[in-house]
Amino acid sequence: MIDLRDGNSRNSVTSQPGLAPLSPYLNFDPSYLPTNQPEFIFPEGAVKQRGRLELAFGQIGAACIIGAGLGGASGFYKGIKATTLAGQTGNLRRTQLINHVMKHGSSLANTLGIVSVMYSGFGVIFSWARGTDDSLNTLGAATATGMLFKSTSGLRKCATGGGIGFGIAAAYCLWNSRETLSQIRHHSVNPAQK
């Protein structure tokens, strides 16, 4: 207990007998705090995952960063090759290397960023129109993105772009639902087991 007359602590304050003493300035016992709580708090009835629009910002940023990194690496390689063949040295070579890195990095970052914006936009529109977020939205958004991205190159390249988008999305959807597919396969092999 604390003796309030002279402000000194005569006995230590503990949460339970046998435990370490608590600070007299701390008004609660830490043992009452729950140890396992969810990381995020969701309103009653809310979906416990982020929607497509919330995920879009991270996807767009990641696509730009990955594009800048890959494009910069490609530009650095091409710059070293070009400056070596030209016999450039010193400041001139360094400037040319920086130009190659910046040109190729920004070009690929812009390309991947635009593709990501189109994919995210189509995904949000399909989710809103259908009222659900599933693999069909992913397949449709990727196909529409590939077709729109190559739409200025003619009908054949537009169809090829759509096919590439569909193929990438199909691979992603299969990878993402591999556990469900293994359960379906297991159930079809042995239908007696539930």
Description:
64% of the residues lie in helices and 2% in strands. The radius of gyration is 30 Å and the shape is flat. The mean pLDDT is 82. α1 (52-86) runs antiparallel to α2 (90-130). It has 5 helices and 2 strands, in the order ββααααα. A hairpin with a 6-residue loop joins β1 (13-14) and β2. The protein is mainly α and 194 residues long.
Task: Bin the strand percentage.
Answer: under 5%
What share of residues is helical?
55-70%
The major pleated sheet works out as:
2 strands, antiparallel
Tally of helical segments: 5
Strand order of the largest sheet: 1-2
Using only CA atoms, what is the Rg? 30 Å
The general outline is flat
Distance between the termini: 61 Å
Given as residue ranges, the uncertain stretches (5+ residues, pLDDT < 50) are: none
Query: What would you call the structural class?
Result: mainly alpha
Keyword list:
flat; 2% strand; two-stranded antiparallel sheet; 194 residues; 5 helices; mainly alpha
What is the secondary structure topology, with strand pairs?
Elements: E1 13-14, E2 21-22, H1 52-86, H2 90-130, H3 135-149, H4 155-176, H5 178-189
Antiparallel strand pairs: 1-2
Helix pairs in contact: 1-2, 2-3, 3-4
Summarize the structure.
This protein is mostly helical and 194 residues long. The chain has five helices and two strands.
